[in-house]
Amino acid sequence: MKMKLKERMCFLVVSLFAEVVSATHQITCPTEPIQAEEGGDVSLQCRLDPSVDLRKETLDFTRADLNREDDVVHSYSDEKDRTYRQMDQYRGRTTLIHEDLIRGIISLNISSLTLTDSGLYTCYVPGLADSATITLTVVRKDQDNRTNTTTIEPEKPGAEKMDVGAIVGGVHGALIGLGLILIGVLVKLGIIKNRCGTDQQVAADRSQTEELNPAGNGLINVVSEV
């Protein structure tokens, strides 16, 4: 009876300790879906807040969306990875970063991603009675490239043509304006030239008159007397 009583007391103490720890610590994961490319690698990371050394804890990553008993992606306990519990499709492709556990960070790397890896991943720490879920979306390589191309797509050819047309129109307008100015200058120069020609003609007529009438105004006087 005494042994059973001691066992019960120990169980109660451990249970109370677990409840106190779980009440003061919380597992947090990214709330936004994580997107990765088919054939690439991804890191699923959760952390304990406030942080505590998790090396002696039991950690499980499972697929919450598969609704099956053997849904373990990666398992860790007694400071070792327990690969025998893994689903076949994840064997040899998962790595838990043990160094991060000291800082209360749970980092699970998955390599050689396939489209079937898309889903909900739950990180569960039984000793803390707490868990958190991450959404992973794996996309095809060509799909990811199309997405990137759409994001950085240059301006449409029509827009470039419109810009070129606007530039050409501006140049034409400038040339027309310059031509009008040039014509005005030429016209003005022509008028000045005509005026110079008229003055030269008047001077020539006077010179010819003087040659015909060397006496100057004498001929005019005779005509006046007659």
Automatic annotation (TrEMBL):
GO terms for biological process: regulation of cytokine production; regulation of leukocyte cell-cell adhesion; regulation of T cell activation; T cell receptor signaling pathway. The gene is LOC108874186. The keyword Signal applies. The chain crosses the membrane at residues 164-187. Residues 1-23 form the signal peptide. Keywords: Disulfide bond, Glycoprotein, Immunoglobulin domain, Membrane, Signal, Transmembrane, Transmembrane helix. It comes from the Eukaryota. This is Butyrophilin-like protein 8 isoform X10. GO terms for molecular function: signaling receptor binding. One of its GO terms (cellular component) is external side of plasma membrane. Residues 18-135 form the Ig-like domain. It comes from Lates calcarifer (Barramundi).
